[in-house]
Design a protein that fits this description.
Layout (H helix, E strand, L loop, with lengths): L2 E2 L2 E2 L8 E5 L3 E7 L2 E6 L4 E2 L2 E2 L7 H19 L7 E3 L9 H7 L3 E5 L2 E2 L2 E8 L2 H10 L1 E2 L2 E2 L9 E7 L2 E2 L12 H8 L1 H23 L3 E13 L4 E5 L8 E5 L14 H9 L12 H19 L3 H6 L2
Antiparallel strand pairs: 1-2, 3-4, 4-5, 5-9, 6-7, 8-9, 10-16, 11-14, 11-15, 11-16, 12-13, 16-17, 16-18
Helix pairs in contact: 1-7, 4-5, 6-7
Length: 309
């Protein structure tokens, strides 16, 4: 494993079969029904992976997902998810690899993943705000009049997108188009489940002084039982917009994510450029934000959480 500024930017497990590399995660085959998701400290912005990693980011993503899987499963008893274990596998790893993976990996079920991203929005921001300003719609659906930047929608809305290959951008699509892609039966199930999970998470976060503005879920299919299964990471700072409460309507909100990175790239004219290295100040500010939202949501320190594994 190679590191930069104590960040794990690559994970190489030569005794396991690597089947996919994402912007942040590496996926390995353990057996016919089980995969290992290993989470690096890589960070991407504007669809480009940067040269500099953010120390402990992978552990935050992994452990905050594990926390949310537990929270959601208790609140929605019928929910099925793909996590089998938070521990590295006992076979196929050296002692050094096993210890390095602790806290930043999940053993998960191998499932057929639906090729859409199930985005739920509770607040008007980002690409939704741009579309609303132009047409009064979000993903083609008409919205209430008079909304402002960062306004709460009267009710959370389901706004799917395509699931693009690495290096490409996801495309916002209508609910009708999502049904065409994956079938009306599964589209309805995913929409209903995504809205319910968002509502549970929104209320849970609000009790801790955090606004869940929007988030992205992904789902897979258990082909043996025809059940829709929650997969991938869930409710992390990479897949969600978390804001400190209260919301100030009419302006952009500060956020618990990679905003320091986006601001730096924009200011320096590096948006969308490859080969970019981040200064130490941006790295540390971003690391602090990831840890802060983890600790606010879980009520635990990251260090104690990792030590307990």
């Amino acid at each position: 494993m190679s590191t930069q500024l104590h960040a794990v930017t690559s994970i190489d497990l030569p005794n396991l079969e690597k089947i996919a590399t994402g912007k942040v995660r590496e996926l390995y085959k353990l057996d016919e029904g089980t995969l290992l998701m290993a989470v690096t400290d890589r960070i991407s912005a504007y669809d480009v992976v940067l040269e500099t990693g953010i120390p402990e980011k992978g552990a935050v993503l992994c452990q905050i997902s594990a926390h949310w899987f537990n929270v959601l499963a208790k609140a929605v008893p019928e929910l099925k998810h793909h996590v089998l274990s938070l521990q590295p596998p006992s076979q196929g790893l050296s002692t050094i690899e096993f210890e390095a993976l602790k806290g930043r990996c999940l053993q998960i079920r191998k499932l057929k993943v639906f090729p859409i991203e199930a985005i739920v929005r509770g607040y008007l921001t980002g690409s939704a705000w741009k579309e609303y300003q132009t047409s009064g719609t979000v993903h083609g659906d008409k919205q209430a009049e008079g909304l402002r930047l960062s306004s709460a929608f009267p009710e959370p809305i389901f706004t799917p997108s395509t699931k693009a290959e690495q290096g490409d951008s996801d495309e916002n699509i209508s609910r009708a188009r999502a049904a065409e892609i994956i079938g009306a039966k599964y589209a309805e199930k995913i929409e209903t489940l995504a809205l319910r999970l968002y509502t549970v998470a929104r209320d849970y976060a609000a009790e801790r002084g955090i606004i869940l503005a929007d988030t992205k879920f992904e789902f897979g299919l258990d082909e043996a039982t025809d059940e829709v299964i929650l997969v991938d990471e869930v409710l992390t700072p990479d897949s969600s917009r978390f804001w400190p409460a209260p919301v100030k309507v009419g302006v952009d909100q500060p956020s618990f994510d990679k905003q320091f990175v986006r601001d730096y790239l924009t200011e320096k004219g590096l948006k969308g450029k490859t080969g970019v290295e981040l200064p130490a100040t941006v790295v540390e500010e971003t690391r602090a934000k990831y840890k802060e939202v983890f600790e606010k949501l879980t009520g635990k320190s990251l260090e104690n959480t990792l030590a307990a594994l």
